[in-house]
Amino acid sequence: LEPPRRPRRPRRRWEVLPGKNRFCCDGRVIAARQSGVLPLTLALILLTSGLFFTLDCPFLVQHLSVCIPAVGGALLLFVLLTLLRTSFSDPGILPRATPDEAAQVEKQMDAPGSASGRPPPRTLEVVVHQQVVKLKYCFTCRMFRPPRTSHCSLCDNCVERFDHHCPWVGNCVGKRNYRFFYAFIVYLSLLTAFILGCAAAHLALPSSEFSFTPSSTAVELLVCFFSLWSILGLTGFHTYLLASNRTTNEDIKGSWSGRRGEGVANPYSHQNVVLNCCTTLCGPMPPSLIDRRGFLPQDE
Length: 300
Description:
GO cellular component, one term: membrane
Number of helices: 7
Family: Belongs to the DHHC palmitoyltransferase family.
Order of helices and strands: EEHHHEEEEEEEHHHH
Helix content: 40-55%
Strand content: 5-15%
Organism: Tetraodon nigroviridis (Spotted green pufferfish)
Oligomer: single chain
EC number: 2.3.1.225
Distance between the termini: 28 Å
GO molecular function, one term: protein-cysteine S-palmitoyltransferase activity
């Protein structure tokens, strides 16, 4: 008699999801396979903050205020939380078309396939707020991309309201994590400016103690000074995008700026800065469209 077969371990859908993503904690955490320079981002933040708490805080608590470490700690906490939420969350990945759905879409295409077997590039036109928007066909996901959706070549996924793939956070920035990305760069700007001001105060105030700290504090001040300009520039750029309800991808392509001489108005703008910002940052969190934790049928 053959020994009884052990029942197959039920598999979850994240184990077979296409795309270049990594999953942790049984599918609860998602990350891009190419983490970019995320470890460097974390190292720079923690190293600069460590120098601040080690060298500046003891001196400033005695000479200025005991609230300085609390403010710095709160800003650092917000920076780390928003960074991790941006890096390890679903940015708005769209599930790929099933074979039946892809066959139906390709069947509706009028022109025959090319010699390579792939259908020729196709577009669909839809009306968004009384304006015609073209939808492009994605050959990888085998579907027409919804408005503002783009395919990330690094993550190999179509992402809703695709903004850009950020190497500093190691993930795509899209519909579901843009608010956390924007909060991250705002808090990082505040933290960098705060540490810069505290380091300058440490150097400016007379000190008879901590004789070894001024040189280290000067290095810390220089790092924060040169970093702050790029961070503030990035924050200002995304504030402009928020105010006009655009994405980085749309701005680079000049989709609504009239760079191509068409003068097309942005159909997604509410013509109100406050409303544009609130729509992107304060609306309800869109649900994830990929079923990571669901179980696969036994025959798959």
